[in-house]
Amino acid sequence: MSHGSKKPSLTEKYLPKDLWKWLSVKTSFGTTVYDCVKSALEHPDSNVGLYAPDPEAYDTFSELFHPVIAEYHKVDVENLKSVHDLGDASKLEDLPQNYADQIVSTRVRVGRTVKGFPMASKLTRDTRLELESRVKEALSKLDGELAGTYKSLTEMSKAEKDALIEEHILYNDADDKYLRDAGGYDDWPVGRGIFMNNDKNFIVWVNEEDHIRIISMQKGASLKQVWGRLVKAIHAMETKLEFVRHDKFGYLTFCPTNIGTGLRASVHVKVPKTADSGKLNEICGSMDLQPRGIHGEHTESVGGVYDISNKIRIGRTEWDLINTMWVGVRKLLDSELKK
Question: Is 255 marked active-site?
Answer without folding.
Answer: yes
